[in-house]
Amino acid sequence: MYHVLLEQQVALVTGTAAGIGQEIARLFAEHGARLVLLDRNAEANQATADSLDPAGKRAIAVHLDVRDRPAIDRVISETIRDWGAIDVLINNAGVYPRQEFLTMTEGQWDEMLDINLKSMFHFQQAVLPHMIGRRRGKIVNISSVTFHLGIPNLVHYVASKGGVIGLTRSLAREVGAHNVHINCITPGAVLVEAEKAVVSDEQVRAFVAQQSLQRRILPIDIARAALFLSSELSDGMTGQTLNVDGGWVMH
């Protein structure tokens, strides 16, 4: 019998206009979740919500920049008010521009850290009082396999994603006594539309050649790991990092 893993649970997911976040939203909807979809691309994010729930009763799109703490506080407060609880938070939003370190500006460094890492500080600090008060909650932070590899021309990105792992581990210890679970996923080279702007076909072939599984990793692969970490199936886990990269890095 098919087991619906997130029936009636409320999940906030960031970066849902496309790619991994969009696929997480789709899979969570299939498993009964009520969804608040957060992205700064308002039009594409609304399209995601409409594709999942045209009536707008179980999936709503919210235009939000993850660097805007007052907006984060507001959406969390309104979600709790309107839907009664927040059971799951998926911190997925991120950017991936390449830049040589010696030509990198302080502004480029700050933007990367603000979007990829500081946003997770804001979201978790905003939602944790609610989860701690309920003595339940699942948080999944999306990092990257690049932290395990070290990749040239991505120093700011790799630093931000390493910070995500450190944040996950330390915060999991801090809130574990309150029955709040915080885990992390490190995706490998995932086949998404945005990939075409930053890597060549030759680079993609090189990635796959280094994997144990000789196929592209897809957004659904990451979404399934996020579902596992957001459901009762992972109730014995916290502070962990799941590497979903086709067996590229093993640790």
Description of the structure:
The protein is an alpha/beta fold and 251 residues long. It has a single domain (10-242), classed as Rossmann fold (3-Layer(aba) Sandwich). The chain has eight helices and seven strands, in the order βαβαβαβαβααβααβ. The chain has helices at 19-30, 42-52, 69-83, 106-134, 146-149, 155-175, 201-210, 219-230; strands at residues 10-14, 34-39, 59-63, 88-91, 137-142, 180-187, 241-244. α3 runs parallel beside α4 (106-134). The longest helix is centred in the middle third of the chain and has 29 residues, at 106-134. The mean pLDDT is 96.
Terminal-residue CA separation: 34 Å
CATH superfamily (homologous) name: NAD(P)-binding Rossmann-like Domain
Largest sheet composition: 7 strands, parallel
Query: What's the tally of helices?
Result: 8
Which of globular, elongated, flat, extended, rod-shaped describes the shape? Answer: globular
Number of DSSP strands? 7
CATH class: Alpha Beta
Sheet with most strands: strand arrangement: 3-2-1-4-5-6-7
Order of helices and strands: EHEHEHEHEHHEHHE
CATH architecture: 3-Layer(aba) Sandwich
Overall helicity: 40-55%
Mean pLDDT: 96
Secondary-structure content class = alpha/beta
Instruction: Write down the CATH topology.
Output: Rossmann fold
